[in-house]
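Collaboration report, partner site 2.

Our partner group contributed sequences for two proteins of shared interest, and the home lab folded both. The records are reproduced in the order in which they were received, starting with the first partner submission.
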Amino acid sequence: MPHAEVTRLVRLSTGVLEEYAIDSMPPYIAVSHAWADGLSNSGTAFSETIGGQALLGSINNSVNSLQELHHCWVDTFCIDQASEVDKHRQIPLMGSIFSDAVSLAVMLPYDLQFTQADVDRLGEALEPAFKMVEDHDWSSKQARRCREEPIKSLLIRALYGLSHLVKGSWATRVWTAQEFLLAKAVMWIGTDHSMIRVPDSHFSAIIALVDEHFSLGQSARLRKLKSCMLSLLLLRLNRIDRTRFITQISDRECSVPQDVIYGAMAASGVSITVTQGQTPEDIWRLWWEMAIKQQHVRWACCAIMWKTPGVPPLSRNYNCVMPPFEVRRIASDVLHFDRVEPLGPVQLKDGTVSLYGYDVGVCKIVSHLGHHHKCIKRDGLLFVYPDLTTILWSQGNFKRAFRIATALGAGTFNVRNLLLVAQVLTCNYSKALWAVTHNRQDSFSPVFRSYEQHRIYAYFTRLQGYQGHSVAEMSLEVYLATISNTIATFDVAILLPGKAPQGQLRALDFNVTYGRGEFDPKVLTILESPTISTAPITECTPEFDTLHKVGVTLPVQFFNLGMYGQHNFEGGEP
């Protein structure tokens, strides 16, 4: 049997397999395909397969350096499919195989119907729109240009072209997602021997522009592009933490259940030993533990999910720091925070995580707000109504409305703007209650007394909508609470999986930042202990063994937190 550090390549001119050490392979193309498409069946000579003919034809038709490549790697030929031993030896090599390839060739079982020249012309015409996304310039003038001709028609045309690339099985598989993410460069090849390249920044910008500016939010084409490609593109562009890939493919398909982790771990940057006979739950636990040991502390700071009502019974008991396997993606994505830089060494021992954090203050629950108003349409889509939600939470009470606006505003609004938001929440309560009672949510539109009210409230609602869908999907309960320290007392919104805990609560800052800037809002962790005092925590003491994570806050602006001391926290048992 070959050594674990050896793989095979197909010589394109002959179809013969050649063995190479993984660190000394000649330049090659890595082939990505869905087995269900039958493009590269190993029972046939490579040059006679549909995929082989398309690859060879596209290379011969190209006018670039691809013609100088003489090898390719394709799993159906380069891995002994009859040998489980060879499969387990090759799986840990996937990271090197796909990241070292000159390019990834995505093989599609249909004609592309357009050429690279078409892609280039469209990209040149849309350059102003791409620059707007790159510069984060969503001003009214620039946005208006994207909604008008000719940009509007060009964006719709681009959307249809991109959706053509992902209409097949390739976009539904776990392994193909990892292959795409690991690749240095990507080319799409159809059965008509056409080959195109689409810059990642253009691909993601088109999805963002169409989603933002047109009433296509629920179109099947846009939904599929967003669900199967957007997170991959953001990962390729290094805009989100690489370890999050392990959960981004949880809704993709794989032939072997264990591959939902094994098929993603190389691209996630955290790898574990491949072992036969383990369940997906066991593999997830091992991956999570390895991630914590490698200082990826974000995975200990996710929202609590294991008590959430309405979720199917979980396979086993989990502790308070590890997201359950069944809901790992939702728990990870609910607050949209990215990489968490630890404030000190992180340790994992006997199911307990030890990490450094800041004591923000005592947390006291003021009121149970409830959950996000939502409904499921006939096609199974979840619709969330952030404006209805916050209006109903206000109960028509101005003081309550102002505190809710403060807690949900993430420090974005000054007092004057918060008063404007509170006015809208209070004045529209009766109208919102009528809309929900009569099942007229879709036609509800709040009333505004001034343009300024409308402008500020639109921004506030957009912020809630960004957070609300994930929170609603998890059926988390939202509570209004206060956090107090020796400097200040301020309102926050906290997310709990059910009823409020009975013990005393404390808020801690583990540097979970809502964004990547130094002064971006932070997500605080809420911990419970029946014995903890209201005095500031200044050192590690034995009482902290009983602290348990019970929830998290919605984003809180850093300047609200005042001054607080650093301490070590140990916790993790249920």
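Second partner submission, folded after the first:
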Amino acid sequence: MRRVTRSLRQRLIMIFGGVSLLLGLVSSVVIENRATQTLTSLGQDKLEEISRSIARVMSQSLVERRREIDLISRLPTLTLEDWQTESVRTIIDAVKQGYRPYAWMGLSDINGRVIVASDGLLEGVDVSARPWFIRGKERLFTGDVHEALLLARHLQPSASPSEPLRFIDFAAPVRNSQGEIIGVIATHAHWTWIEAVIKESVSQEHTSHQIDVFLVDRAGQVLYTLSRTREVELFGTSSASGALNLTLTEDMFKEYISARAAIVGPGSEDLGWSIVVRQPREIALASVSILHQQMLWLGIGLSLLLVVLADRAAVRFSRPLQDIERTASQINAGKEDVNFSVKSSGIRELDSLSLSLAGMTHTLITRKTALQDLNQSLESQVLARTADLTEANRKLESLASTDGLTGLANRRQFDKILLEEIARARRHSHPLALILLDIDFFKHFNDRYGHQAGDDCLRAVAQALKKVGRRSSDFVARYGGEEFAIILPETPCAKALELAKAVCTTVRSLDIPHSDSPIGFVTISAGVTCLDTRDPQPAITLVSRADAALYKAKVSGRNQAFLDNSGHLDGRGKPTA
């Protein structure tokens, strides 16, 4: 009998110990693999979002520069072909000085001779062989980054002695009133502009997690790197995501996860740039190593515990073990009133064990009932918390669509409502008008009276916009800075222009003192346009045309409203005969 007991003990120890160890190893491997896959996927998604975010910011910056040079090329002063005037030189110098990254701006005739240039640089020089002039005669052009050639000896050197001056070109053809090309207007933007855009898009958190950012051209050359080292080279492309892998010469044996996003939008085809971000795999998967160690120790602990339990069970239960197993099976089958007494055992411990198991069964049944009650209570609490969370999300969504300073809708809400109103206007063939407004000389106002007074001025103007001719369907938003926008559904251009003039009058009547304004009070300028249902990109065109009309109001003396006359539309946004 002792040999049987000892054999059972050994078997239980080997079975429980071996199974627990095996399960521990298998579960550790499975969990580690799943965790690695999940964290790798999350890290990849995070890097893709970062790369797309930076690419979107750079695309928007390029669009703004292209739009600015395009608007300048259309100025009436330049289309008159008489460029040897003080007004032309004033425009060139003012635009160049108005945007710090511009290193040079010039106007060349059709033969490539620079007629007028900022600060007089390169005037009279033949630039007919320069790519920006050749391509600029054909269309609106964005040039790839290049080192300074003609301007190198005229401008201050780069802040880093080891890096030469580098520029990005923007050029556009200048046409006369008959539509004939009479010259090219161009500007060279400092490469530091691109560096600033990338640095502003990368947070301190990304840097602390060793996330590197690279600007890469279509040939695979690294144009700019926000990395821990400057020595970078490309060595391949991932077939799954198309993300370029980058290796550092100082740590070539490290593994990385990476993502790539192309910079798209108007003019991006001239550049072929992409944003590549990467992170060391060991940083992204640091928590997996910790989990692996925890799972290893947990498996060892469970194995030792089960071995001890198996040893104790073998000592206490040998011959009557099958009887107890049968009784336990009955309980497992759902019989809750089973008697745990072992027939003809004569063993006091087993009788006591039967009583203990009976008590345990009662306790489990009691706890089962209590657990069911607790689950019902938790379900009620979850429903209540879900309702609270839904209400909180609704409030957060409202805050996310409102400008905190003026109480008006913000730019994000404006973009959403504009798309909705354009779709509705097209669906019902209703007219749709847009007014863009800009407070005149607001920077001077801030400089003289302070930003607190500037905030008060913005709030006062916002309140005035709410009250002028507002219908329930009209939509007023803060477009950005000192700019506002009004969307007018079912409103023809003539009516929208009247409302824009009324807004100018109302803002002037606020009598907010402005000593740096020729009028002496705060005024506002407005640009008005209407939806053209033929346009394939109506939202972009609508904002661009309203902005062009606003620009005309500005250059024509401010404190007035201009109607965009780029197209002749009837009251429903359709072309007239």
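Feedback sent to the partner group on the second submission included the following. The first strand starts at residue 102 and ends at 109. The two ends are 112 Å apart (CA to CA).
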